Amino acid sequence: MRTPLLLTTSSLLFYLLLIGPFAGYLQNRPFIERIGYVPSFKVLKLVAADHKEVTASFLVMKVLMYFGGLIELTQNEVAVAPDYPAMSRLIHNAVELDPYNMDAYYFAQAILSWDVGRVDLANKLLDHGMQYRTWDWQLPYFAGFNHAYFLKDYATASRYYQRAGELSGFDLYKNLAGRYMQEAGRTELAIRYLSTLEQGEKNLAIKKSYQLRLIAFQEVQRIEVARDEYQKKFGRLPASIDQLVQEGLLTPPVDPYGGNFYLQPDGKVATTSKFAFATKEGSEPAQK
Amino acid sequence: MSAISIENLTKTYRGKRGAKVDALKELTLEIEAGEVFGFLGPNGAGKSTAIKTLMGLISPTSGSATILGKDITTPDARRSVGFLPENPSFYDYLSAEEYLVFVGKTFAMSGPELKEKTASVLNRLDLWEARKRPMRSYSKGMVQRVGIAQVLVHDPDVYILDEPMSGLDPLGRTLVKEIIKELRERGKTVFFSTHITADVELICDRVGILVAGALQTVRPVQEILAAGVVGYQVKAKDIPQELFSYYNADSQAEWLSVPKADLGPVMARLQAAGSTVELVEPQRKDLEAFFLDIVAHSQA
Amino acid sequence: MTSMISVTLKGIFRDRVFQGILMTALIFLLIPTVSLLSMRQVTELSITLALSLNSLIFLLLSVFLGGTMLWKDIERRYSYGVLGLPMTRSSYLAGKFAGVALFFLLTAIVLGAATFVVVFFASSLYPPERPVQWEIIALCLFFDVMKYVLLVAIAFLFSTLSTSFFLPVFGTIAIFLAGGATQQVYDYIHSTAGDTLTPLVKQAASGLYYLLPNFSAFDLKVNAIYGLSTSFSGLLLTIGYFLLYTTFILSLAALIFSRREMR
Ligand SMILES: Nc1ncnc2c1ncn2[C@@H]1O[C@H](COP(=O)(O)OP(=O)(O)O)[C@@H](O)[C@H]1O
Ligand SMILES: [Mg+2]
Questions:
Q1: Which of A188, B140, B284, C95 could lock B228 by a disulfide, CB 3.0 to 4.6 Å apart?
Q2: Is A133 domain-assigned?
Q3: Are the beta carbons of A50 and C221 separated by less than 8 Å?
Q4: For residue A176, what pLDDT is reported?
Q5: Tens digits of residue pLDDT in C54-80
Q6: Do the two chains A and C touch, given a threshold of 8 Å on CB pairs and at least 3 pairs?
Q7: Do residues A98 and A191 share a domain?
Q8: DSSP assigned state of B90
Q9: Residue A79 to residue A65: CA distance in whole angstroms
Q10: Which of B57, B87, B106 sits opposite C86 (nearest CB)?
């Protein structure tokens, strides 16, 4: 009688002592460890049985949590390189399990195109999704944006916008063509796209990532306006951003991704952060 | 037509790795309608095996049997049979009442008849108070009583009971013996197994003794008891000295032990000597001794 | 047989299986909250989670209730008393099976109601772009129940083959996984990727495909979640498949059970 009682109380005591450090250890485990290993979709498909859709949702959630954690950390200035290949792999697995999962496509569009710079992968996923989600206007809308903004393939972009318009019943997307389908309108196209998405987003992590990017593009737009003013005034392109600041045309811009803005020789605005947090592998940045 | 007819029934259990147990060897037996038959044998003799085969729970290795003319391989053979398994166990989440109703229904009883019969049987077996409780709260003896009750509830013509008295207290044993006697009076056939000779002595018409799977003998109980008389104890006053010294084995005053054959002459001598005979008591080898004899014999 | 059904049902209820289900069903309360994690498909996620929870409960029931049903009767020696009654082994088996199937149906009604409430609530928080197709969700639940009833039949078949509960429990789980995968494997070997396989492997796989139950036909989750229409004739075929396959498995089980020694 006494031994079990002793064991119960002492084990409870030690448990209470242990649980603090244990939770701390788990909390501080590097992110890369936290996203963990996920078996290939071929295996998952076999063992998930009639829970494929849930498994797919679970994978998307896993990526989302991981990403959410990263965003939270960047707010506190801790730069951690996100494991984009792992995230991309999980998203691919998810759409293999449930080709209808909108969260997967949406997240892929949000991350692959901008942060990983793999617009080709994003477009492939979007096309895949369109085969299944035949009623969904968002997928062609995303594809249209990708083609217009990143690939500058305005003809294809128009086709996608056309389709988005038909599916949604809004003419807005058809009309996008005229104004933005040219080099000069790129920044505004992006700002418009981002603010639309930002407003409709309820996931805080994703919303924050939109907000960051939106701030970056608004900064770019400010620089562009100042640059154009400079050019009007002096008849030539400014040599640097500092010049714009010195002339009083611009208050110093801040890159939310921690980089420095600079002007390319042809006058285009760029930043050393390439509009993304440092990537783990040398994946291509979103904008050159 | 006999109530139960068993012919050359053989059962060989095949265990793992080819182990074989000849549990029942060529059993041939007729149980007449209306008789109470005691199936007596030591533990492991094969009594339960024979009964399980009769009830279709296991299939015979060879041989056949019928109950009221119906082959035991058909469920029809069990239509008019009440069966009590050895150490029975019933759905323990049901109450005794519910189980009896379930049994009654499978015998196509229903309505007020079933209700009435259930109530009377529960009362008879002293389960009335506990009838609504789930059987998992019953003692071993109570479960055994439920076993007897579920046999009686549908009032069959043939009763096959595997060790009906086991697990019961003296009161319960007496009750079951009474019930069996009543069944005989009502012309029912009872075939029950036991390893206790006293049970057989009191209530059976006939007894069959099974040892190591083989039937040794089938005899009317009365005949065994009669044949078992080996001598007499005679109590008399004024016994002549020569008789006393010859027949008094244990020096008890007034008592003589007289072998069976000598009873006539001894009585004549006593009468001639003017002694008063007060009591003549037969001395018999009881069923137990008979049983032990047969077991010892068959093992030799 | 009806009395066998009612005894079986009583047993299931009195062993507090239903309370266990209700406890597990408390997870339903979490579904709306968890669904809010979704970025673009809150309602769809709530349907996904609710349907998967239903399937999980039924899987556990099939394996642990269906797989131990006969074993328990034999292990606790209830079967001596019951099979000594003038009841055929087949009707004993059929009664037990019908009892479990009926219990599944009752459970499905309760869990279905919970599903509807949860999905309705989630869809009122974030109205989905396309209206929820309630009838497809109901259809999905119904076919799910059919699938797991078929799995119970398989558990019964395993129970008649073995005296322990290991075969029924683990065999049923194995068949469940295999039955969910057969269609995929079949599709794979008949695709160009399957050309590398030897003909023998292909034939063996095809043989297994026809032999093993095909559970993917009963899976209407995608239809229910995304409101995709179902093929009426396909569903009729599936019902026919269910009836025939279950009858076949059960009669095979009855055949084996009739020869089984109750020693
Ligand atoms: N299931 C079984 N498998 C193998 N042997 C068995 C089995 N059941 C009983 N036996 C053997 O058969 C013999 C007869 O057993 P049983 O009929 O139970 O005897 P009884 O009821 O007379 O005590 C015994 O030797 C017993 O060990
Ligand atoms: Mg016995």
A1: B284
A2: no
A3: yes
A4: 58
A5: 999 999 999 999 999 999 999 999 999
A6: yes
A7: no
A8: -
A9: 17
A10: B106
Neighbours of ion ligand 2 (CB under 5 A): B 48, 86
CB < 8 Å to A109, chain C: none
Which residues 97-136 in chain C show a CB within 8 A of chain A? Answer: 126, 129-130
Q: Which domain holds residue A58?
A: 9-116
Q: B153 alpha carbon to ligand 1 midpoint, in Å?
A: 29
In ligand 1, the atom with minimum distance to the C-alpha of B49 is 17
A274 domain-assigned: yes
Q: In a mutational test of the pocket of ligand 1, which residue from B9, B40, B48, B193 has the highest number of ligand atoms less than 8 Å from its CB?
A: B48
Q: Report the residue of chain A nearest C56, measured CA to CA.
A: A51
Q: How many residues does chain A have?
A: 288
pLDDT of residue A78: 47
Q: Are residues B244 and B95 in the same domain?
A: no
Q: Is C40 in the B-facing interface, judged by CB distances under 8 Å?
A: no
Q: A204-234 and A52-75 are packed helices; what angle lies between their axes, rounded to 10 degrees?
A: 50
Q: Which of A61, A84, A116 is the last residue of a domain?
A: A116
Could you report the per-residue pLDDT of C141-155, keeping only the tens digit for each? 999 999 999 999 999
* A108 alpha carbon, distance to own chain's centre: 8
The number of helix segments (H) and strand segments (E) in chain A equals 13, 2
A60-74, B119-133, C173-187 — which one is most confidently predicted on average? B119-133
| Burial of residue B31, with CB atoms counted within 10 A of its CB: 0-12 exposed, 13-18 middle, 19 or more buried | buried
Q: Is residue A262 part of a domain?
A: yes
DSSP string, B6-57: EEEEEEEEE-GGG-EEEEEEEEEEEE-TT-EEEEE--TTSSHHHHHHHHTTS
Q: Are residues B126 and B242 in the same domain?
A: no
- Residues β-bridged to residue B4: B31, B67
CA B155 to centroid of ligand 1, rounded, Å: 30
Number of domains in chain A: 2
Among B200, B225, B250, the domain boundary falls at B225
Q: Which of C81, C83, C86 sits opposite B107 (nearest CB)?
A: C86
Q: Is the domain of B40 the same as that of B100?
A: yes
Regions in chain B scoring below 50 on pLDDT: none
Residue numbers of the domain that contains C70: 2-258
Taking the CA of residue B19 as reference, the ligand 1 atom at the shortest distance is 4
Domain count, chain C: 1
What range does the domain containing B266 cover?
Answer: 229-284
Instruction: Give me the number of domains chain B comprises.
Output: 2
Which of C77, A248, A21 has the alpha carbon at shortest distance from B91? C77
Please, what is the average pLDDT of chain C? 91
Provide the ipTM: 0.89
In a domain, C181, yes or no: yes
Pick the residue whose CA is nearest to atom 26 on ligand 1: B44
- Kindly give the number of the ligand 1 atom that is closest to the alpha carbon of B21: 5
Q: Is residue A155 part of a domain?
A: no
Q: Which token pair is C83? A: 């099979």
Interface residue C89 vs chain A (CB under 8 A) = no
Q: How is residue C172 written in tokens?
A: 């049923």
Task: Please give all residues whose beta carbon lies within 6 A of any atom in ligand 1, as ranges.
Answer: B 13, 15, 21, 23, 41, 43-49; C 263
The one-character DSSP state at C63 is: I
Where does a domain end: A58, A86, A116?
A116
Q: Nearest-CA neighbor of A100 among A165, A33, A45, A52?
A: A52
Say what the pLDDT of residue C44 is.
92
Which residue has better confidence, B238 or C212? C212
β-pair type (B36-40, B214-220) = unpaired
- pTM of the predicted structure, to 2 decimals: 0.85
